[in-house]
Fold:
Amino acid sequence: EDQVTQSPEALRLQEGESSSLNCSYTVSGLRGLFWYRQDPGKGPEFLFTLYSAGEEKEKERLKATLTKKESFLHITAPKPEDSATYLCAAGAGQNFVFGPGTRLSVLP
Amino acid sequence: DGGITQSPKYLFRKEGQNVTLSCEQNLNHDAMYWYRQDPGQGLRLIYYSQIVNDFQKGDIAEGYSVSREKKESFPLTVTSAQKNPTAFYLCASSSGGYRSYNEQFFGPGTRLTVL
Structure:
């Protein structure tokens, strides 16, 4: 069965304190690994798609990387406005499986 | 602006009632989806549609129904057969049909509460 897990469940950082979020996947034949940002009470906002191990993508303070078993979302010098839930999803076969998310809080 | 709209933002339902959630997109996307989000869980797929007049059940279709009469519209009906309908409902769309390598774009969501 295809599965996606994310860790930690919640993360509190001080402003400027860099860290990484993990997304581990167990799927048959990964077609794409997707990262989204979700603010409370809103729909997920698309961030990145990664297709192959070794691929990296960056956007402002965020960088996503991919290995054969997991993906990381690195947050460099975060600001309070980066506070949100970050979701990852794995596309494999006919499935698009979401993880439960990591709730990030960045304190000023 | 291109995007996905959902209405209403909040919906209250009495037990035994059917309710319909609206989803419209002007992105010219072929595929559309309905997900349910519950606290602490990943998004779960209810139904999806790759083209007009065609739709497929997802992982948790029981108690729900959909239609796809127009490319732009994919309404979801939550029927009285759905035993635990209180949740946050998200509509999404993607280009090129349902492909697991195509990113999906989401609407703002509808929060349904059963009274």
Summary: Chain A has no helices and eleven strands. The two ends of chain A are 41 Å apart (CA to CA). The longest strand of chain A covers residues 30-38.
